[in-house]
Amino acid sequence: MPSSSKKGRVLSGMRPTGKLHLGNYVGALRNWVALQDQYDCFFFIADWHALTTDYADTSSVKQNSLEVMIDYLAAGLDPERSTMFIQSHVLQHAELHLLFSMITPLGWLERVPSYKEQRENLKDKDLGTYGFLGYPLLQSADILIYQADFVPVGEDQVPHVELTREVARRFNQFYPRKLHAGDRDPQRGMVFPEPKPLLTPSPKLPGTDGRKMSKSYNNTILLSEPEASLRQKLKTMVTDPARIRRTDPGNPDVCPVGDLHKIFSTAETMAKVNEGCRTAGIGCIECKQWASDSLWRVLGPMQERRQKYEANPKLAWDILEEGSQKARSVAEATMVEARDAANLSHEYEAPVQSVVKS
Which helix (H) or strand (E) holds 82? Predict the structure, then answer.
């Protein structure tokens, strides 16, 4: 049945690609931390999804999963307020994915925008696999197995949520939930609620070379970046190309360092940046120092929180295992309903005897 939480339930996850960077934080993680007091939150590490593009070498998946979990905790996700778990430790995801694969038209998967985009952008990998084609459906199973009400996403991920809504609708049409005596609410006839996207603000976050921050560009600033390394990276960061000499006025609106200030600096610092840059009252070196200070005010406390988990990684792994156990309980309750609706119940039911009147 749909989430009984009065708050509403939220579900989201990240692939374990190693330590997270500022782009992951600004694009998702910062928002997740804020959602913890508003919703019943489930956040997972999508290790099966990592295999959709990197199936040829799985040697780093487990360690990367641990690194992501430590970053979750360092950023402020709290196991007392959120359920954190590993996707592959909840086998019901796979069972529901299989069930959905039986009813989902192939064309629905082929039209997902990211399917063609990734095949074009990752030409060095063989993505002609069933797993890659079906990963949006696995995402749907990830969401619906917890009967989530909301999925925090950026604009580019909205088509995935829409696919999930269509899959839920199709399942509910084929396999309505078995109603019990006294059920009058039409919603009770649906195993899966249709989740809604919870749009996440995604401010422009450049990497050190001015392009979008991405590990593939080698231009990232990690959440675990040491302070000295952080400051060194910002020293070499590209700036407004029109500002060639110290005496040239600049424009923070077209400067990658200016973009960092807009996200992380205080209004007071931002005012100094705008005034100083546009009048050539400050140089880029000073502006970058202020940006480093602003970033470290965010990253410093994170790195303090992560120290105990780096010293004893089992603490983080134990939290994941506890979360996975809770997630399995919730997921199995959903599968009991889904199996029952699809007439695949594990429970024996005596056949209904027809009564013949004389």
Answer: strand 82-86
